[in-house]
Amino acid sequence: MTLQVRLAAGDDMPGLYALRHDVFVVGQDVPEELERDELDAGADHVVALDGPRLVGTGRLVDGRIDQAGLLEPGTAGTVGTIGRMAVCAELRGTGVGRALLDALVGRAQERGLPGVELHAQVHACAFYERAGFVPFGAVYLEAGIEHLGMRREL
Protein backbone atom coordinates (compact mmCIF):
# COMPACT_ATOMS: atom_id res chain seq x y z
CA MET A 1 0.00 0.00 0.00
CA THR A 2 1.24 3.49 -0.89
CA LEU A 3 -0.80 5.71 1.41
CA GLN A 4 -1.14 9.45 0.90
CA VAL A 5 -3.32 11.54 3.26
CA ARG A 6 -4.18 15.11 2.32
CA LEU A 7 -6.89 17.75 2.41
CA ALA A 8 -9.64 16.88 -0.02
CA ALA A 9 -9.98 18.80 -3.26
CA GLY A 10 -13.24 19.48 -5.05
CA ASP A 11 -12.82 16.51 -7.37
CA ASP A 12 -12.43 14.20 -4.31
CA MET A 13 -15.91 14.98 -2.99
CA PRO A 14 -17.92 12.45 -5.06
CA GLY A 15 -15.53 9.65 -4.04
CA LEU A 16 -15.50 10.53 -0.35
CA TYR A 17 -19.29 10.78 -0.29
CA ALA A 18 -19.50 7.39 -2.01
CA LEU A 19 -17.16 5.84 0.57
CA ARG A 20 -19.11 7.35 3.47
CA HIS A 21 -22.35 6.04 1.96
CA ASP A 22 -20.88 2.57 1.65
CA VAL A 23 -19.48 2.55 5.21
CA PHE A 24 -22.35 4.22 7.06
CA VAL A 25 -25.56 3.75 5.06
CA VAL A 26 -24.85 0.32 3.57
CA GLY A 27 -22.52 -1.09 6.23
CA GLN A 28 -24.08 0.31 9.41
CA ASP A 29 -27.68 1.04 8.40
CA VAL A 30 -27.36 4.76 9.15
CA PRO A 31 -30.34 6.51 7.53
CA GLU A 32 -29.23 8.15 4.29
CA GLU A 33 -30.72 11.51 5.32
CA LEU A 34 -28.43 11.58 8.39
CA GLU A 35 -25.18 10.69 6.66
CA ARG A 36 -24.76 13.94 4.71
CA ASP A 37 -25.59 17.27 6.30
CA GLU A 38 -25.23 21.01 5.91
CA LEU A 39 -21.95 20.94 7.86
CA ASP A 40 -20.18 19.19 4.97
CA ALA A 41 -20.04 22.43 2.98
CA GLY A 42 -17.94 24.27 5.58
CA ALA A 43 -15.87 21.33 6.82
CA ASP A 44 -12.23 20.55 6.20
CA HIS A 45 -12.28 17.09 4.62
CA VAL A 46 -9.26 14.82 4.43
CA VAL A 47 -8.82 11.81 2.19
CA ALA A 48 -6.55 8.78 2.27
CA LEU A 49 -5.45 7.49 -1.11
CA ASP A 50 -3.84 4.19 -1.98
CA GLY A 51 -2.42 5.15 -5.35
CA PRO A 52 -5.38 6.65 -7.19
CA ARG A 53 -8.00 4.85 -5.05
CA LEU A 54 -9.76 6.79 -2.28
CA VAL A 55 -9.72 4.44 0.73
CA GLY A 56 -10.55 6.69 3.68
CA THR A 57 -11.97 10.03 4.71
CA GLY A 58 -12.87 12.20 7.67
CA ARG A 59 -13.86 15.78 8.37
CA LEU A 60 -13.19 18.61 10.81
CA VAL A 61 -15.96 21.07 11.64
CA ASP A 62 -15.31 24.31 13.52
CA GLY A 63 -17.40 24.14 16.69
CA ARG A 64 -19.02 21.64 18.99
CA ILE A 65 -21.68 19.32 17.63
CA ASP A 66 -24.45 18.37 20.06
CA GLN A 67 -25.95 14.89 20.43
CA ALA A 68 -28.67 15.79 17.94
CA GLY A 69 -25.95 16.43 15.34
CA LEU A 70 -26.41 20.21 15.36
CA LEU A 71 -23.67 22.81 15.61
CA GLU A 72 -23.89 24.56 18.97
CA PRO A 73 -24.01 28.35 18.62
CA GLY A 74 -21.06 30.31 19.96
CA THR A 75 -18.56 27.45 19.91
CA ALA A 76 -16.73 28.27 16.68
CA GLY A 77 -13.01 28.74 17.29
CA THR A 78 -13.18 27.15 20.74
CA VAL A 79 -13.17 23.51 19.66
CA GLY A 80 -13.27 21.46 16.49
CA THR A 81 -15.33 18.34 15.92
CA ILE A 82 -13.88 15.41 14.01
CA GLY A 83 -16.40 13.16 12.35
CA ARG A 84 -17.45 11.04 9.41
CA MET A 85 -14.31 8.90 9.78
CA ALA A 86 -14.63 6.14 7.22
CA VAL A 87 -12.14 3.56 5.93
CA CYS A 88 -12.92 0.93 3.30
CA ALA A 89 -13.56 -2.44 4.93
CA GLU A 90 -10.53 -4.31 3.59
CA LEU A 91 -8.07 -1.71 4.92
CA ARG A 92 -9.37 -1.32 8.47
CA GLY A 93 -6.67 -2.08 11.01
CA THR A 94 -3.83 -1.14 8.63
CA GLY A 95 -3.15 2.38 9.91
CA VAL A 96 -5.35 4.27 7.45
CA GLY A 97 -7.72 5.45 10.20
CA ARG A 98 -4.86 6.65 12.41
CA ALA A 99 -3.30 8.54 9.48
CA LEU A 100 -6.64 10.26 8.82
CA LEU A 101 -7.10 11.09 12.50
CA ASP A 102 -3.56 12.50 12.76
CA ALA A 103 -4.19 14.67 9.69
CA LEU A 104 -7.43 16.03 11.15
CA VAL A 105 -5.80 16.77 14.51
CA GLY A 106 -2.94 18.46 12.67
CA ARG A 107 -5.42 20.58 10.71
CA ALA A 108 -7.10 21.64 13.97
CA GLN A 109 -3.69 22.63 15.35
CA GLU A 110 -2.92 24.63 12.19
CA ARG A 111 -6.18 26.49 12.70
CA GLY A 112 -5.25 27.28 16.29
CA LEU A 113 -8.05 25.31 17.93
CA PRO A 114 -7.36 24.48 21.59
CA GLY A 115 -9.04 21.08 21.42
CA VAL A 116 -10.97 18.61 19.30
CA GLU A 117 -13.94 16.43 20.12
CA LEU A 118 -15.62 13.53 18.41
CA HIS A 119 -18.54 11.19 18.80
CA ALA A 120 -16.90 7.77 18.93
CA GLN A 121 -18.79 4.60 18.22
CA VAL A 122 -18.32 2.67 21.46
CA HIS A 123 -16.52 -0.21 19.73
CA ALA A 124 -13.89 2.31 18.47
CA CYS A 125 -13.17 4.09 21.77
CA ALA A 126 -9.87 2.25 22.34
CA PHE A 127 -8.67 3.43 18.89
CA TYR A 128 -9.29 7.05 19.87
CA GLU A 129 -7.85 6.61 23.37
CA ARG A 130 -4.57 5.42 21.80
CA ALA A 131 -4.52 8.74 19.92
CA GLY A 132 -4.87 10.76 23.14
CA PHE A 133 -8.63 11.24 23.29
CA VAL A 134 -10.36 11.08 26.67
CA PRO A 135 -14.01 10.02 27.05
CA PHE A 136 -16.57 12.33 28.61
CA GLY A 137 -20.28 12.09 29.35
CA ALA A 138 -22.49 9.06 29.10
CA VAL A 139 -23.04 6.60 26.26
CA TYR A 140 -25.86 7.71 23.96
CA LEU A 141 -27.52 6.54 20.75
CA GLU A 142 -26.81 8.30 17.48
CA ALA A 143 -28.38 6.82 14.35
CA GLY A 144 -29.17 3.71 16.43
CA ILE A 145 -25.48 3.14 17.31
CA GLU A 146 -23.96 3.58 20.78
CA HIS A 147 -21.57 6.55 20.93
CA LEU A 148 -19.45 8.27 23.55
CA GLY A 149 -18.08 11.81 23.47
CA MET A 150 -14.28 12.05 23.47
CA ARG A 151 -11.94 15.06 23.63
CA ARG A 152 -8.28 15.80 23.08
CA GLU A 153 -6.62 19.02 24.19
CA LEU A 154 -4.17 20.45 21.66
Structural features:
alpha+beta, 27% helix, 7 strands, 4 helices, single chain, Aminopeptidase
Low-confidence stretches: none
Note the overall shape: globular
Q: Proportion of β residues?
A: 35-45%
Largest β-sheet summary: 7 strands, mixed
SSE topology string: EHHEEEHEHEE
Number of strands: 7
Approximate helicity band:
25-40%
Q: Can you tell me the CATH architecture? A: 3-Layer(aba) Sandwich
Number of helices: 4
- Give, in spatial order, the strands making up the sheet with the most strands: 1-2-3-4-5-7-6
Q: What is the terminal separation in angstroms?
A: 30 Å
The name CATH uses for the topology is: Aminopeptidase
Give the name of the CATH superfamily: Gcn5-related N-acetyltransferase (GNAT)
CATH C-level category: Alpha Beta
Gyration radius, rounded: 14 Å
Describe the fold and architecture.
There is one protein chain. The chain has 154 residues and is α+β, with helices and mostly antiparallel strands. The protein has a single domain, classed as Aminopeptidase. The protein contains 4 helices and 7 strands; from the N terminus they run βααβββαβαββ. A 7-stranded mixed beta sheet has the order 1-2-3-4-5-7-6. The protein is globular. The mean pLDDT is 94.
